[in-house]
Write a sequence for this structure.
């Protein structure tokens, strides 16, 4: 099996499309979603169609990206990283599906705030990830996977502890945003920043730590 996209991932995409269809049937065409609140007034609005199209469009991009990645990896590298990449794709698709459900609930006037629930769920996942990364032991199938290797044990510990602390910080920020409820727009931006910022930070820290330790080893 050379694809990272499973039937469960396609199911999540189908569920998101189904939610969008139900929303179109029950929410008027000219409805605008309040994305941010200033006092008791919404000062940021999302047009219905643009808002509903965003989560499925992001899912299509993610499915294509992970499918392409699975095809590009060697069989051995894919076997070592599948247990990390498949859950990562599941989390990304689930967050998008949760946001789509939030649009449905908001559009029909429900008090069930899926945006805040999704943000809290993501915060919980980040806390678990933080604990796993911080204490990750070095071996062939665990830890962060980057295009460049983490050659020394000291670099491995540094990278994983910084990444774990960053994940814990992101979890606390997401929890605070969900608690204070600044509006769906800020929550979505926060979730997007968390899901894109942590991998980028981990990649940067890995690259810097690897180069620093390589320089120290060469000097010694």
């Amino acid at each position: 099996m050379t694809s990272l996209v499973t039937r469960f991932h396609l199911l999540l995409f189908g569920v998101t499309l189904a939610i969008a269809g139900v929303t179109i049937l029950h929410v008027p065409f000219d409805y605008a979603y309040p994305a941010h609140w200033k006092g008791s007034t919404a000062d940021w609005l999302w047009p219905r169609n643009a808002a509903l199209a965003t989560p499925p469009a992001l899912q299509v991009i993610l499915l294509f990206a992970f499918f392409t990645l699975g095809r590009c990896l060697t069989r051995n590298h894919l076997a070592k990283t599948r247990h990390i990449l498949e859950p990562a794709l599941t989390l990304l698709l689930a967050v998008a599906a949760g946001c789509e459900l939030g649009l449905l609930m908001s559009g029909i006037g429900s008090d069930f705030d899926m945006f805040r629930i999704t943000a809290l769920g993501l915060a919980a996942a980040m806390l678990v990830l933080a604990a796993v990364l911080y204490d990750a032991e070095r071996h062939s199938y665990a830890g962060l996977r980057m295009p460049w290797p983490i050659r020394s044990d000291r670099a491995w510990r540094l990278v994983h502890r910084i990444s774990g602390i960053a994940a814990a910080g992101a979890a606390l920020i997401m929890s605070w945003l969900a608690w204070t409820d600044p509006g769906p727009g800020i929550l979505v931006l926060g979730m997007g920043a968390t899901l894109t910022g942590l991998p980028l930070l981990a990649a940067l820290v890995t690259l810097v730590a690897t180069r620093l330790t390589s320089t120290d080893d060469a000097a010694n």
